[in-house]
Amino acid sequence: YPLFQRGGPQLRIFRPNFFMLAVRPGVPQPEDTVQFRVSMEMTKVDIRNYLERIYNVPVAAVRTRIQYGANNKRNHRNQRVKKPDYKVAYVQLGQGQTFQFPNLFPEKEQDEETRSFDDFRDKYMEKEKQKQEGDPRRGGVPDWFGL
Amino acid sequence: MAALGAWRVLRPGRRWFSETVPGAPLPPGGPLYPPVVASITAKSKAAKSRRLQRFNQRVHAAATVEEKLRLYGKLQRPKYTVYPQTFALNADRWYRSFTRTVLVPGMPPRGAAAKPPVGAAGATLEAGKSQEPGAEAPAAPEAPGDAEAPGAAAGAVPSVDIGELRSLTCDALLQESFYQNKKRPFLYRDQDHTPGPFLTQLVSTLAASLSGRNPLLAASSLDLSPEVNYYWHHGEEVVVHGHRKGRVDPVRFQIDDNPHLQIRVPKQLPEVVPLESDLGDVPVIDHKPSKLPLFKKQYENKVFIGSKVADPCCYGHTQFHLLPDKLKRERFIRNRLEDQIEVVYRSNGIASLFAWTAAQAMYQGFWSEADVTRPFVSQAVVTDGKYFAFFCYQLNTLALSAETVRNNPRKNICWGTDSKPLYDVVEDGNVKGFNDEVLIQLVHFLLNRPKEL
């Protein structure tokens, strides 16, 4: 390939592994802040361009940090097992937009059948447990103990 | 008893275990046993509150203000450094929640007798200050013509000649930007090159020419890039990691500010509204300050107004702040953050003025357990060389720590304007588009004084 100079034809295409994963923040973040796990090679400029050009999201500020994955766990051969490192990006949205991470597992409404089946199942389990325990008047003493 | 004697040998002068002197004669007819109170050294909440009370009593009982300040800032722990000139987004909302400040847009309404009338434009000024540029423009050309106001009230005080002040301003501006041969400014040193010296020159000449009208200015002290520091507690948090993990600690803040110029006066400016007035709401932010982003550091807990306690000019009059190159308007416009331009001015005004007024109050002996009995008022002008924003701050309360803020109904108040340009452009030895409102507002600020003078 000929050496590239500014204004010349771009003959090579680079396809770096740039990914962004929106995650639920572990600690509560302000309303305009979104937390992402991004590829380790992405910079703040890359993250801003990614969001603005691909998804048309107005970005006001980006801050990044690298989370070190611990190396303390040991496997069955006593070798240390490392959890992978990853980069976390905190993106503050522009134009007064806010973001709240959605609840991915909402409580589903149970209909009549499932509710009655759950009740029946709980009652049956209670009866079984009672049978296993024995007479409560003996105070936990087994029934083979005695005269 | 032997143990007590041994402890006294090991640590002379400090008796931790009891407050009564063993062996002293009991008062006749009084109780036979010492009062039953919580321990001092135990790891319990009652012991902690008793230690806090002993500390508060020590500070209350301190003889001089220097001793009080020394005890107040004696214990060093990691604290958040609050920067008045910050690039953080929506910083003014956060700063208002840290300092319990209400922001009121526009300048406070002034009484007609509080200041001397200003030329023929005096009547229009009292009516609608800085809201009608149309009324100012026709009034301004008349002002150079008549120096004395024919129909002005309070004729004992001579009026101010706006034309003369305008020519002084234009002289300073042209001298710095046109007449003087300066080399190109170094990278990111634009503000120190032209607007910095212009501001210094402007303020010193205006203060000198107006000191005849305002005797307070004549007795004032003008500081060049002074230091203003303040340290305070607000709210509580649990320590996250370290050997003190799990304990409940107050959240500590420190402001270290370097205004470009500062005027300190020996007498206090008059209060704008009564001490207990409520002009709005303080924003409540539940998140930790580190989300702003704000960072923790441990260093000296300094409280300073620009001069030491013994200085006679211990009250503040006006501060002048110059915005750095990092916070220029062009940078915000290029990054499409136009709404953050005003936030920069407001956060600078609120943080710097809170630090200054609170430090002035501490110099008079007030602190978070001994709240202020009279409001402390100061003014500030934040500029980037061309655009000027005016702020007036009234400190009503210093009690911001977790125990004292619970029952505290008072709030601090900050009046602030938007930034307005003083001129449009400087070309070929002429200043085009000069804005008289800004100059008149500046003159009002400098002429502000207590009612007795």
TrEMBL record, chain A:
Subcellular location: Mitochondrion
Keywords for this protein: Mitochondrion, Ribonucleoprotein, Ribosomal protein
Listed InterPro entries: Nucleotide-bd_a/b_plait_sf, Ribosomal_uL23-like, Ribosomal_uL23/eL15/eS24_sf
Family, similarity comment: Belongs to the universal ribosomal protein uL23 family.
Gene Ontology BP term (one): mitochondrial translation
PANTHER family, alphabetized: LARGE RIBOSOMAL SUBUNIT PROTEIN UL23M (PTHR12059:SF5), RIBOSOMAL PROTEIN L23-RELATED (PTHR12059)
Keyword rRNA-binding: no
The keyword Ribonucleoprotein is annotated on this UniProt entry: yes
Annotated gene: Mrpl23
Cellular component, GO annotation: mitochondrial large ribosomal subunit
Highest rank taxon of the organism: Eukaryota
Region (Disordered): 102-147
GO MF annotations in UniProt: structural constituent of ribosome
Protein known as: Large ribosomal subunit protein uL23m
UniProtKB/TrEMBL annotation, chain B:
Keyword Ribonucleoprotein: yes
GO molecular function: structural constituent of ribosome
Pfam families for the chain: PDCD9
UniProt keyword terms in alphabetical order: Mitochondrion, Ribonucleoprotein, Ribosomal protein
Bias kind Low complexity: ranges: 110-123, 132-155
Tree of life domain: Eukaryota
Record carries keyword Ribonucleoprotein: yes
One Gene Ontology cellular component annotation held by this UniProt entry: mitochondrial large ribosomal subunit
Region of interest called Disordered, as start-end residue ranges on this chain: 110-155
Example GO biological process: translation
Subcellular compartments: Mitochondrion
Protein name per Swiss-Prot or TrEMBL: RT30 protein
Biological source species: Sylvia borin (Garden warbler)
Gene: Mrps30
